[in-house]
Amino acid sequence: MFLQLVGLLFLVVLGGGSAVSEGIESYENYYNEIHVDDDEAEAKTRNALTSPLQRWPGNKIYYRISTDYSEQEVANVRTAMSSFGEHTCMQFKEVQRFAPWGKRYVYFKKSPNECGTLVGYQPLSFGPHDVVLTERCLKMPGVIQHEALHLLGLFHEQSRPDRDEYVQIDFDNIPEKYWWQFKTMDDTTTYNLPYDYDSVMHYSKNAFAKDPSKPTIRALVGGKAVERDMGQRRGPSEGDWTKIRIMYKC
Predict the structure, then answer these.
(1) What binding details are noted for the cofactor (predicted)?
(2) What CATH number has the domain bearing residue 3?
(3) Would the N or C end of the chain have less CB density within 10 A of its end CB?
(4) Active-site residues: which are they?
(5) What is 119-143 written as a DSSP string?
(6) 229 pairs with which residues across the strands?
(7) How many whole angstroms separate alpha carbon 167 and alpha carbon 43?
(8) Has 35 been labeled as part of a binding site?
């Protein structure tokens, strides 16, 4: 059985429309995709898919952009997707209507309040692999690239099974409904790559904080918890690119 693993990139809107932080998690809304009591919630926080059946077949992925995107939004998607061909062997090729016969394609759609996608190739699904994005998400190629990494099979960096060797999570400063976002998974792989504080898949140091003046994630240096910046929205780190290169045997 294949889990329908959901990409965790949805817009969080708090009172007045301001995000808790400007980390990548400020674009996420977990209520819109899985309930906190979902039996599969833990499986949806893995760092990288291990099943070869959930990797996209071949190294060319076709994508289509909705006609309700503005010219700038279209340009941002194209910029984000072209970067994969520059840094990995994965090529994203745009189509106007449909992919070649027998090939699935990624469909970039617009949503008023959600940004998200399923994680990895879905071998038991039919039709396009949807990526939904708000106007806010579409303004930033780095956020679009975060989604592309999800659809290729990556999850969040702080969910690595060896996470506790590199960061300390302050659960007292995190609402209990978000605790599962910080669980680690043992049945996954890190490809033996170093922990990447600068990954576009890593939450910021104040992610989901009850008190935003205090970190929820601290780095461990020599066994001591220290405050440092982590995560970003500029785009994939070299570690992110390396995972894709290894996963797809580039």
Answers:
(1) Binds 1 zinc ion per subunit.
(2) 3.40.390.10
(3) N
(4) 147
(5) SS--TT--S-EEEEE-HHHHT-HHH
(6) none
(7) 20
(8) no
The encoded tokens of residue 1 equal 């059985």
Residue 145 and residue 235 in contact, taking contact as beta carbons nearer than 8 Å = yes
Residue 186 is predicted with a pLDDT of 63
Residue 107: how many CA atoms within 13 Å on its side-chain side? 16
199 is written with which tokens? 């990954």
Q: Are 54 and 120 in contact (CB under 8 A)?
A: yes
**Main-chain phi, psi angles of 91, to 5 degrees:** -110, 125
Which of 2-16, 47-61, 135-149 shows the lowest per-residue confidence on average (mean pLDDT)?
Answer: 2-16
Q: What one-letter code names the amino acid at 238?
A: E
Q: What is the pLDDT of residues 152-209, one digit of tens each?
A: 988 889 988 899 999 999 999 999 988 888 888 666 688 889 999 999 999 999 999 9
Full residue range of the structural domain in which residue 74 is found: 1-250
Distances (CA, A) of 80 to 151, 159, 215: 13, 24, 30
List beta partners, residue 6: 118
pLDDT band for position 54 (cuts 50, 70, 90)? confident
Number of structural domains (the chain) is: 1
Coil/strand/helix, residue 76? helix
Q: What is the reported pLDDT for 40?
A: 42
